[in-house]
Amino acid sequence: xxxxxxxKRWLRPxxxxxxxxxxxxxxxxxxxxxxxxxxxxxPEQHGASFGxxxxxxxxxxGQMELLARHYHPVALDDLVEILEGRRSLxxxxxxxxxxxxxxxxxxxxxxxxxRLGIPAAFYVVVNSITSGQPPWPIRVRHALLSTGKPIWTDxxxxxxxxxxEAERLDAxxxxxxxxxxxxxxxxxxxxxxxxxxxDSAPYASRERxxxxxxxxxxxxxQGHVVGxxxxxxxxxxxxxxxxxxxxxxxxxxxxxxxLSQPVWxxxxxxxxxxxxxxxxxxxxxxxxxYRTAVTSRRGLVRQKENPLGLPRILPxxxxxxxxxxxxxxxxxxxxx
Length: 336
Ligand SMILES: [Zn+2]
Description:
Layout: H1 3-9, H2 13-24, E1 31-36, E2 38-40, H3 47-50, E3 54-56, H4 57-70, E4 72-73, H5 76-83, E5 93-100, H6 103-116, E6 120-124, H7 126-131, H8 136-146, E7 151-153, E8 159-161, H9 165-179, H10 184-197, H11 213-221, E9 225-228, H12 241-259, E10 265-267, H13 279-288, E11 292-298, E12 310-312, H14 319-330
Parallel strand pairs: 1-5, 2-3, 4-5, 5-6, 6-9, 10-11, 11-12
Antiparallel strand pairs: 7-8
Helix pairs in contact: 2-14, 4-6, 4-14, 8-9, 8-10, 12-13
The structure holds zinc ion.
């Protein structure tokens, strides 16, 4: 091991976190909204199709214990009051959120959260809850990474070789650019066309992948917030206003019918295409009746933040990594 590597070893994240913690006393206060997706005992089981969105149960538990011990977990409703100026912002405030609506959110993550008294917000893709099928990026990723076909031809007749994993991931990025601009029926047809061309059955698993309506009701009863992550997971900023409005409004209405409670919170899907929200999508969200909307923009929520364009922080896949990211954020540096 060379000198450089040895030198770096003692600049370990936790040691530096202490310095940052001191700096955070001087920084402008803000709240960190953490963005999670899936928590599994054995992430490798679904890793190829889910990509990097799975946390192992062990790491997630460690991260939640870290939050309970060293930070100030807040509920989304508290954050609304803070943004409206009706409540002061506690130091080192953290809100835990989940996107998409995977069944493990209820089965694995919620018991950890409940044991530690951490309130969370779960934003679900409503069509996926109804059908039980995961959102389209999982299906498309599965098709492109598992197919035996050597080439995929996209909708613009461009041919994508699939010999190596890197080539398959390039093809996946191109497919995301195509499918992310579509919603509803036309998106469904595009996904089925990809699966058919690649001889790939829709991604399925022996266990249920998405939460049921009963599980969402259960989360509500446990004190968590259930919000919308759209109907079909398109990039709202790339849709026409009519389609974007329908994704916002119909997903809200369906959730409200099933949960018998108003739904006020939204998460903008599909940040693969940039931008994934604009001033226009924020005003459509407001018109649809949402009070807050989270984005995949990196940053801390400040007291005067636009509630319909809230930034989030990536939790990383290690406990120390999360602590480092939070300390950087609270000290005024964002690292994702
Ligand atoms: Zn999503």
